[in-house]
Amino acid sequence: MVAFNLVDMFYVGKLGQRELAALSFTFPVVTVIFSMVQGLGIGATAIVSKSIGAGKMSRAATETTNSLFLGVAMALMFFITGLGSIDFTFESLGAEPDLIPLIKEYMEVWYFTVLFVVVPFIGNSAIRATGDAKIPSMIMLFAVFINAALDPLLIFGWGPVPAYGVKGAALATAISRFFTLILSLYVLYFKKNLIVFAFSTISSVVKCWKSILIIGIPTGLSRMITPISASIITALLASYGEYAVAAYGIGTRIEFLTASLLIALSASVSPFTGQNWGANRIDRIQKALKISGIFAVIWGGFASIFLFIFAENLAGIFSNDPQIIETTKWFLTIVPVSFGFQGLTLIVNSNLNTLNRPLTASILIVIQMFVIYIPLAYLGSEVGGINGIFFALLVAYLCGGTLSYFTSSISLKRMIT
Questions:
Q1: pLDDT tens, per residue, the chain with 417 residues
Q2: Which is nearest to 390 in space by CA: 302, 307, 292?
Q3: What's the structural domain count of the chain?
Q4: Which residues make beta-bridge pairs with 161?
């Protein structure tokens, strides 16, 4: 998922600063929608993995099928609301009028293909609930290669294929995402037997949807807090100029790439927690949380050293503009020190959500972003300019990770006693 954005940034960056800034503006909005989709995926993983852990495979298949239908309904909602609010949304984020047409080129295509995003994500979540993380990874990697091959063709054109520019990046993503839809449904039906066509009563479907949404809505809302915060920060950075927004877009994408292993670990925690909760093995959940936390901090330390050494070189891959390179370099120098602690936050959130404690998980994110990050960012902007904003993110990650870890440890101890 991160590679999708990085490849797009790489090729769009060659079109110019305006195009790169336009794509950077789309990132928080796309991430907001992804956050809600992730919430549904985590909700589906929680109930399906618990059923599997309890040995109730027939119920798990019914829950998976109902989850997919819920995903279709959500995709339709995203399409209708998103397509009609592009101008308002991005003007509110501080995009200059000359950037709006470029942003619309990308988002109009993206909204039309949102079904290809939502359904495969929920489907892959159900596959992971069985304990199989390999197949979803292979599906996504295949799509990444398709996207990487199509990006230069559709962005710059070749032979009979016209140059679509920014729109080409969206078209490449749409086509590659279509493959994830087909492949995930194939695996669910033919390999995992998790799609059933037996008639379900309306009441049973509603009951299943309710179980998913009880976890999925607060989880999705809590995950939306981070991109919403990023949107606020994007608007704040827009006051410094397009170069600041472009640099922030590059920096956050490199951040996500660096943290992809920790994001994957947090995704693995969810089915592990669900299955062991269904089997009443809370002790194994405690052990997994401890091991995962140690790994996250160690990985974050290595990542920060690497990014500190190669910050300028990495920034230069995506742009040759001196201001963008310099600003991106400072982001990659300041923020990565705290990546491991943000990994802790992601791991704990998956753990709490699966244990049907989404409110606790949401409160932790609210504290991290709205109580710590946003106020400090505005203060940092006044005191230290753009770098002050980056230091605010560093502090928010450190505090959020520490608070999340101790909160989860206490919750698990109470479950045992």
A1: 667 777 888 898 888 888 888 888 888 788 888 888 888 888 888 889 888 888 888 889 999 999 999 999 999 999 999 988 999 999 888 888 889 999 999 999 999 989 998 999 899 989 988 888 889 889 988 999 999 999 999 999 988 899 999 999 999 999 999 999 999 999 999 999 899 887 678 888 888 888 888 888 877 777 777 777 888 888 899 889 888 988 888 888 888 888 888 888 887 888 888 888 888 888 898 899 899 999 999 999 999 999 999 998 988 888 888 899 999 999 999 999 898 999 999 898 888 877 878 788 888 988 999 999 999 999 999 999 999 999 999 999 999 999 998 888 888 888 776
A2: 307
A3: 1
A4: 158
Six token digits for residue 382: 């006044």
3-class SS shares of the chain: helix, strand, coil, % to 5: 85, 0, 15
> pTM, whole model, 2 decimals?
0.71
**Given phi > 0 = left and psi -120 to 50 = alpha, else beta, which region is 78?**
alpha
Contacts for 165 with CB less than 8 Å, ≥ 6 apart: 15, 19, 102, 105, 155
Provide CB contacts within 8 A for 340, sequence distance 6+. Answer: 262, 296, 297, 298, 299, 300, 301, 303, 401
Domain that holds residue 330: 2-416
Place of tokens 């199989």: 132
Mutual angle of helices 202-238 and 17-53, in 10-degree steps: 150
- H-assigned helices in 187-281: 202-238, 242-258, 260-278
Who's near 233: CB < 8 A, 6+ residues apart? 248, 374, 377, 389, 393
